[in-house]
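re: ur question from earlier - yeah i can do the single chain one, its not a big deal. heres the input i used so u can compare w yours
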Amino acid sequence: MRPLHRILSLFSVLVMLYLGVTGTVMQLCDLAALLSHAPETDPVMLSINEGRAGNGDIAVLSPTDLTAATLPVDLDYRKAIETTLRAMHRAAPGRQPNLLEIREVDGHPTGQIKIGEQLQAFDAISGARIAVGKPISPDAPLPPSIRQSAKELHRFWGSSDKPGVYLELLAGIILWVLIISGLTMYYRLLAARMKAGRMQPFWMGGGAWRSLHRLIARDLWGRLPWRDDRHSVLGADGITECGGIIALVTEHIACRNIFDERNGLGVVARLSRR
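and the output i got, formated as tokens:
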């Protein structure tokens, strides 16, 4: 078990270092953009909101939406929808809309209607016809930025999701096996210590670097299985990963013999015989 755990740690440390560095770069770019109140058209903000323009042939944003103000608080939505529908039926008698929505365009509440593949817009107050801006294509490439480059590296993607998804799957399997093997060894050590009368569930030993690595590893056990880069506290994840990597590498260098079984489980197991 221990040789498997240490062999996998050599591979996983590279993956974690890769994810920790690229993830931290993304977080720093995010914080800089958010704290400086960057506009929605900023390349970093567009990278943060990637996917918001829609999916496939369903485009939900136009360039004016990125800088539009919020709809008036006192807007009568029912009346605005009725006005938009009446204007649409005058312009296209007998047709039925596939989509209707109220948006703020150039300071005016605007009703947008999709009839088949055609998108029409009307002033939601007066019903007057309004020119429709070309929607942002969901497949349109994002403007270049350090954040977007780090994001593509972070998720192993480039111009396509392949072979990145397979690398993600392999990395996930390796990390899961690493966690399970680490927990297995921990509970074996804990059982041996309890037989020897040492009831503490956590203990320090084997040097400062090994203790630091084990402390951080316990935190990673809780983070890695449920990791979600879009909704978790990424800053803590990145810092924890980088700290765990430094401690893990230093531990292996200090121990020198990676596959040495003489230290650890065997030593603790012999305590019960004393």
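The first strand starts at residue 54 and ends at 55. not sure if urs matches, ping me
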